[in-house]
Structures are given as C-alpha cells and as structure tokens.
Amino acid sequence: EDQVTQSPEALRLQEGESSSLNCSYTVSGLRGLFWYRQDPGKGPEFLFTLYSAGEEKEKERLKATLTKKESFLHITAPKPEDSATYLCAVYQGGSEKLVFGKGTKLTVNP
Amino acid sequence: NAGVTQTPKFQVLKTGQSMTLQCAQDMNHNSMYWYRQDPGMGLRLIYYSASEGTTDKGEVPNGYNVSRLNKREFSLRLESAAPSQTSVYFCASSVVGSPYEQYFGPGTRLTVT
Predict the structure, then answer these.
(1) Which of A31, A87, A102 sits opposite B99 (nearest CB)?
(2) pLDDT along chain A (110 residues), means of 10
C-alpha cells in the first residue's frame, strides 16, 4: 500500500535555529512529490514539486530535496512567520489520487 | 484571479439534514478534487473529477455525492449528514492530475450535531 510518513509530528525551533523535516514514501513509480504549507484555518499552499532523486528546489529559507525513498524540507535560519504545518504528498501509483502525509507542525519562537 | 473559492466558509447541520458545498476555480484547470481533513488523519480524498463530465471515488466516498457542473464548478453533497462528517472540507484543482500540483481553496468548516 502506498504510504507517506512525515516526521517529526511537531518541531519547536528558536528563531535562527536551522533544521529539517522528513517525508518518507513508499509508492510504485513516483510521479512527483509535493510540499505544501498550511496555516491554521486556511487551505494548503503549494510550495514545491520534486520529480526525481537528486532534485532540489529552494524558496527563501526553504530547500526541498529528494532521494529514492524520502524527501527533506530544510529550513535555514527560520523566522516566526515560518510557523505552520508542512505537508508532503505523492501521487498514488497508477492513479490520479494524491496521498498526503499527516504533516509536521513547525513552531518558531522569537 | 481568485483561484479556488468555496462556499460556505462555516456550516452547522443537524443529523439527517442535507447540504451542498460549492467549489469554483478560475484557473482553467481540468481536474478537481474534494478532500476532508480531520485531526490526526491528514487530508483524505473523497471524490475527484479528472475532467468535465467524469467523477471517481477517492478514499472516503461513503455518504457523499458529487457533481461536476461544468469545467469551473465541482459540488459536494451530503444527503443525510452524520456527526462523523464533522470535518473541514477542501476543494482543489490541477491542470490535469498527475504529475501536476493541486491548488486548494480556503475550506469549509462543517459541524454536524
């Protein structure tokens, strides 16, 4: 069964303290891994798509990387406004269905 | 560009009542989706429509029906609401499903008492 597992469930950082979030996946024939940011009371906001192992994408303080079994979202020198839940998702093998992990809730304290 | 819009934002229903959640997108996307999000469960797909005139079941379709009214609009209907359907519902759209990203609406918070 296709699965997406995110860790940790929650992460507290001090402002400026860099760290990484993990997304491990088991899916036959990866056709894209997606990272989203979700603020409380809002819909998920698209951040990145990664298609193949070795690919990296960056946006401000965020950098997403992909291997054959997992993806990392690296957060460099985070700020309080980076506090949110980060979701990752992959398309279920052979279908149009996007399977989501349960997310990592990031809190950045000033 | 409004992106994906959903109405209503909040709704309270009594058990057995019916309602329709509305979703519209102005990005000329072909594919549209309905998800529910519950604490500890993550986002789960209810139904999706790969193109106008087609709909397919997702992971948790029981108790729901959908209508792809046209390319822009995709509605979700609860015929007889149950407390287990208390959730936050999100609509999303994409260019053509896999392998493209989906864009989400702001959500509808539904409480069934």
Answers:
(1) A31
(2) 88 97 89 94 95 94 95 97 96 80 97
